[in-house]
Amino acid sequence: MKPNIQVCVFAYNLQSTIADSLNSLLTSCGEYPVQVYVMINGCRDHTLSVVSEFAKRYLNVYPIEITLGDKSNAWNTFVHQYYDGESIAVFADGDLTFAELAIAQLVDYHLNNPHFLAVSSFPCLKGRSAQAWRTALLREHQFTGNLYLLSPRYIQRIVANNVRLPTGLIGDDSMLGFLTATDLCSGKDTPLENIGVCTDAVFNYEPLNPWRWQDIKLYLRRRVRYSKRHMQQSNIVPKLKRDGLAVMPKYASQIDTLPIRWLSSNVLFDLIAARAIRREGRRSAGS
């Protein structure tokens, strides 16, 4: 009897692409029984109505509307409210499509290598950095936040320890990669032992076009997000290494220092990110 799969899909303002993504996802599961939870978080477009119509045709697809537009909060919501405690959990971004049987391959890899706490997928060969990304994944057993699997025993421990990602965290993949490599802050950092990489579970994404204005704006926003991630991780991870899960903040803006990389190409984005974090910190302090 094949194990049941629960897939958590993160969707934020994806009205034009989410149906194609879900069709691709369902096909990629092969013969595994699957339930798909689409975490529709803070959308200002028609993503909810598109997914709701899709769910009328596919009864194993469940649209979950979340008011707050925050991926980390959506992850917490699925793990602590919708995960059934026994299924194999797969997490996917809603702007991807998937190679043939990609999710089935991910699950097969887990069943053949159950000692891994998590299994990363493999990016398609698109964009300038794709090959370097693949090489680093295999060498370092990095955590791919685009598409990944958490073993039942690991996610059960996450729930039992009430592990939650900070609201507003940029780089959920980086934090989950750290938590997995260290087996929930156990004192060891062993990604090669804890994270598997399934090269047959390939996800497809559209690289940015440097000549398209919309993509240029998206790139600039990403640079600010990368700066926020740098500041958040620089504050949170050292504390977790020293004091364990108990010091995980509720909000990612609850950090002590804002390290500006003055002598680098990141300086402008760091300054913008620092201002945004201060503003978010004032809001979280008042909530």
Percent strand = 15-25%
**Any guess at the CATH architecture of the largest domain?**
Alpha-Beta Complex
**CATH domain class name of the largest domain:** Alpha Beta
Give the neighbour order of strands across the main sheet. Answer: 3-2-1-4-7-6-8-5
Order of H and E elements: EHEHEHEEHEHEHHHEHH
- Please, what is the average pLDDT? 95
Query: What is the total number of structural domains?
Result: 2
Strand segment count: 8
* Major sheet summary line: 8 strands, mixed
| CATH superfamily (homologous) name of the largest domain | Spore Coat Polysaccharide Biosynthesis Protein SpsA, Chain A
Q: Would you tell me which CATH topology of the largest domain applies?
A: Spore Coat Polysaccharide Biosynthesis Protein SpsA, Chain A
Secondary structural class = alpha/beta
Described by the principal axes of the CA atoms, the overall outline is globular
**Low-pLDDT windows of residues:** none
Keywords: Glycosyltransferase, Transferase
Organism: Vibrio porteresiae DSM 19223
EC number: 2.4.-.-
Protein name: Glycosyltransferase family A protein
Task: Quickly list its features.
Glycosyltransferase family A protein, 8 strands, 287 residues, 45% helix, glycosyltransferase activity, 2 domains, eight-stranded mixed beta sheet, EC 2.4.-.-, alpha/beta, globular, Glyco_trans_2-like, Spore Coat Polysaccharide Biosynthesis Protein SpsA, Chain A, Nucleotide-diphossugar_trans, 17% strand
Task: Explain what the structure shows.
The protein is of the alpha/beta class. It has two domains: 5-204, Spore Coat Polysaccharide Biosynthesis Protein SpsA, Chain A; 213-286, no CATH class. The protein has ten helices and eight strands. Strands 3-2-1-4-7-6-8-5 form an eight-stranded mixed beta sheet, with helices on both faces. Helix 9 packs across helix 10. The longest helix has 31 residues, at 213-243. The model has no long low-confidence stretch (mean pLDDT 95).
